[in-house]
Every structure is written in C-alpha cells, then in structure tokens.
Design goal:
Elements: E1 2-11, H1 16-26, E2 31-38, E3 42-49, H2 52-61, E4 65-77, H3 82-92, E5 97-104, E6 110-117, H4 120-129, E7 134-135, H5 137-142
C-alpha cells in the first residue's frame, strides 16, 4: 500500500526544473504527480513517476541529489468535505500529516491525495478500517 516518492533537491534557479523534466522525458519516464516547495536558495521537488528505479538512476547519473520516501495515495471523494473526512479520522487517532498534495483522476468522481504521515503504518490501518481506499503504488504509477 505504500508508494515510493522521489525527492529531488534543486538549486532555486532558472532551468533546474526543466532539466529534471528533460532527463525523465528522454528516459521515457512519465511523471504522475508532483509538488515543489522552495526556499530562497533551493527547492524540493517531490514526485511520483511510473518507473521509480529507472528515474532514480537517470537523475543520479546527471548529478542530482535524489531521495526516496514512502507515502500513501488515498482516494478521496471529489466533493466538499472529502479531505475533511480523512483528516478527521487521522486527528482522532493522533496521526499527523507532514505534507500532502493531490491530483484528480480522469473519472472526476475521486481525487487522489498523496500524504506523508508521522506514522505511515498506523495511517494505513486507521484509514483502511474507516473504509478509505489506500492505493498501491502500481495503481498510482499507471493512473
């Protein structure tokens, strides 16, 4: 149920994000979801790709600093209160969200939220018990 996310550390300057996307494009790797957070000097690009191992190798060969993190992909009803329905369950169990980002599936019925929790295994247990669909990486990488 856990999903491998890549984190790439980039200098905050023109062309660095373009370089990452070029490397992945030339390797035939598809970006499924991404988020970028920045400071004045650097940014952290977090992304899900359809071939994690190949992407890691290609990015590292290009001199980029790449890390891997386990996250969860959870289907959320794409309607008002959808996110709250997940967060309220987690709050009751004392599980903290470290960060998150989202994308909408082509069906338009559900969004997929990507979460990093302070207790990943606990989050899986709590969310599946509450009836949420925690998606395996194989599903997310191909959406």
């Amino acid at each position: 149920m856990k999903v491998e996310q890549l984190s790439i550390f980039l200098e905050n300057r023109i062309g660095r994000l373009s370089e990452v996307s070029r490397i992945l494009a030339e390797a035939g790797i598809n970006i499924r979801a991404l988020s970028i957070a920045d400071t004045a000097d650097f940014g952290v690009l977090r992304m899900l790709v359809d071939d994690v191992e190949k992407a890691k190798v290609k990015l590292k060969q290009s001199g980029l600093t790449v890390g891997e993190t386990e996250v969860l992909g959870i289907e959320v009803p794409d309607k008002p209160g959808g996110l709250y329905s997940i967060l309220s369950v987690l709050e009751k169990e004392g599980i903290n969200v470290e960060y998150m980002y989202a994308f909408v599936q082509p069906s338009g019925r559900n969004a997929v939220m990507i979460f990093r929790f302070d207790n990943l295994d606990g989050a899986v247990d709590v969310l599946t018990a509450a009836g949420f669909n925690v998606l395996p990486g194989e599903t997310l990488y191909k959406m």
